[in-house]
Amino acid sequence: MATLKLKTPISEAEIRKVKVGDILYISGMAVTARDEAHIRAIEYLEHGKKLPVEFKEGVVYHCGPLMRKKGEGWEVLAAGPTTSMRMDTLEASFIEKLRPSVIIGKGGMGKKTADAAKKFGAVYCDFTGGAAVLAAKAIEKVEGVEWLDLGMPEALWIFKIKEFGPLVVTIDSTGSNLHEDLTKQIEAKKAQILA
Description:
Layout: E1 3-7, H1 12-15, E2 23-32, H2 35-46, E3 59-61, E4 66-70, E5 73-78, H3 88-98, E6 102-105, H4 111-120, E7 123-127, H5 132-137, E8 139-146, E9 156-171, H6 178-194
Parallel strand pairs: 1-2, 2-3, 3-6, 6-7
Antiparallel strand pairs: 2-9, 4-5, 7-9, 8-9
Helix pairs in contact: 2-3, 3-4
């Protein structure tokens, strides 16, 4: 296990050095994307439409932030992670088509996402649930917002972040999946206890 400080854009070669259990602090740019944004982004690509943001070698944050209008811009009140499993049916396609390097959320993701991370070079990181104010403090600036018509939580918020973390890598580019490994260990222990 290592503690790493990364800066976007994060190349595939760089992300393939990151392993399950590593702790990351990321600076640069991050874009929030939940269910509706994932669906729209994939539909845009299928119809040959240009996306309003670049995801390649970037950070996708599963987050529906609480925002407040401030003058011409926005300020972040809270920006905790949302449950990533909601995006699991979409994430493999999202990784393949858009090539983000890091996905941040909470609660882990499944085998299809882990397989896509292995094939295309990405990692999934858990950020502590319930730490929405801590997350907001690591956001230096709101660079912009796209697809606000989807609603505040579902829009693409573009954040400038500084040492955003601690992020625990639970899926790496080898396909290792800490959540699935722990589930298997728990089931094995449970079987032993019941026997």
